[in-house]
Every structure is written in C-alpha cells, then in structure tokens.
Automatic annotation (TrEMBL):
Record's keyword annotation contains Glycosyltransferase: no
Source organism per UniProt: Streptomyces noboritoensis
Keyword annotations of the record: Hydrolase
Top-level taxon of origin: Bacteria
Residues in the signal sequence: none
Protein name: HAD family hydrolase
Keyword Cell division part of the UniProt annotation: no
A GO MF term: hydrolase activity
Length: 278
C-alpha cells in the first residue's frame, strides 16, 4: 500500500530557537540539526534523530512525503530538509502546488477561481485589517502569494478580543483567521491544505494519507487524513481540538517533531508490510 505523508513544517516538524521548548537539563538536551538559514543566521531546527528518520522515510519508494506549509514558496525554499528532495510540496496554505520545485499553474488557476467565487476580495480584507490594527502592537503587514494576508504583532500588547472580533468579521466574508505565535493570518476559506493534498493523492495513487499539524489552519488537513497527529503545543492544543483518528502527543517543542516523524515511519512501515487484500 502506498502512503502519502503530509506534514506541516513550522512548530510541527521544524522549530525556531524560541519554539524548541527544551526543558531538560542542558547535558540531556538532544543534538540539533539546523535546516534553515535566513539572512545568514540559523533559523529552524530539528533533532538529529528526527533528521535520520525523515531521510529514511523519504527514501522509501512506497512513501510520498509532502511538506505542507502556509509559507510562501520563497520562505519554503529556504528550508533544507534531510534526505531526497520532495517531488511534491504544498505552499501558501494550499494555494501553490510545487512539482519538482515548480509551481503548477493549472492548480493555481483552480484555486483562484474558487476564491473569486466564494470570498470577499483580498483588498477588502487588507483594508479592514489596516484600519483595525493598532500601530502600538503591529510590526508588519504582509500579503502572501496574492492569496492571503498576515500580520506580525507584538503578542503581549495585542488586545485579548481583537482576534475574536476580526474572526467574526471575516467569517461573514468567507475568510478564516488564525493566530500562530506572533502572526495573525487571514485566509480565504477555500484555500486549504487538504484540497492540495487530495490532488497529490489523486496524482500519485496513494492509498493511505497520514498528516500532522499544530495550528487551526492544519485542522482541515488532519480531518482529511486517514490518520493524524498533533503535538502537545500550538493553537490546536490550546483550543482542545481533536478528532477520533488524530492522536494527541504528550511531547512539546522539537521533541514533538521527532515523535511525529517516528509515528509516520512506524505507520508507513506497517502499511507497506500489510498483506494484500483480494
């Protein structure tokens, strides 16, 4: 049985220094591998054990590993995951489907058409956010791939009800809002990781889909998978989100990333070794 593994990246598989959550004594901390450099500085890490497991997983001919991220293509391309290059990658929360590193134009046209039919325009959402945000806590306002908007904020200064009010406003216009660390995302509802994963499964003929993620933007991805995992940290953990086929891990931080890769590998091996059915 062929297996498709769709994994979120930030705070699921890879971790910034601030997100590592290393609570053990220093001599017992895991060895780390840097997998992303930004502006000449190390930015993201995974444990060396996770790196070894992931490289072996990507070498399995019966497994299709698909990085699945809200990052833009440019942000994704900074990451150097161990092992063979991924044949498929999903960026911009499903808005960009990369095949051998090249954006699939047909997929992007389908995404644009659905957003135009079902959602308020991006410019309207950006204008509302710009008017509602307070310069006291707003650090940056950005648009990703002409698909969605996000803010970088000073989390400690962000009013407690601001995200809730934006969520209610966006809901009426076909958009969803997600708070992840210092970033607030406003994303059209049709723009989902799960839709792009379904397309990869169709193209590859995968019979089993596994997934992992930590944020509300990963909920649809986890629901669409046959089996899934979420770490003990993140937006989903804070909200208490779960589903019958999604395991909640006790691990937090970079050790959760290692455990997720281990679960992927164990399940993919079991699938490969399962007896064929008539």
């Amino acid at each position: 049985m062929s297996t498709l593994i769709a994994s979120d990246l930030d705070r699921t598989l890879i971790y910034s220094a601030a997100a590592l959550d290393l609570t053990m004594p220093d001599p017992r901390a895991p060895r780390l591998l840097c997998v992303e450099i930004h502006e000449h500085k190390p930015l993201s890490y995974m444990t060396e054990n996770a790196a070894t497991l992931l490289a072996a997983l990507k070498a399995d001919p019966d497994t299709v590993f698909v990085p699945t991220t809200t990052r833009t293509r440019k942000q994704y391309q900074r990451i150097q995951l161990p092992g063979l290059p991924a044949k498929f990658a999903i960026c911009a929360n499903g808005g960009q489907l990369l095949v051998d590193g090249v954006a699939d134009r047909d997929w992007r046209r389908l995404v644009d058409a659905r957003i135009a039919a079902e959602c308020a325009p991006l410019d309207e959402v950006r204008a509302h956010i710009a008017a509602a945000a307070d310069p006291a806590w707003l650090r940056k306002e950005r648009v990703a791939e002409d698909l969605f908007a996000y803010l970088v904020v000073e989390r400690a200064l962000l009013p407690g009800d601001w995200v809730k009010e934006l969520t209610a406003w966006a809901e009426e216009r076909g958009w969803t809002v997600s708070l992840q660390g210092r970033k607030i995302y406003a994303v059209p509802k049709p723009l989902t990781k799960s839709a792009a994963v379904h397309e990869v499964a169709r193209r590859t003929g995968a019979e089993l889909t596994l997934a992992a993620g930590d944020s509300l933007l990963d909920a649809d991805l986890l629901l669409a998978a046959d089996e899934g995992w979420r770490p003990g940290h993140g937006e989903l953990a804070e909200s208490g989100w779960t589903a019958p086929h999604v395991d909640v891990l006790d691990e937090r931080g970079v050790l959760a990333g290692e455990e997720i890769v281990r679960r992927f590998a164990t399940r993919a091996t079991a699938s490969r070794n399962a007896p064929a059915t008539a």
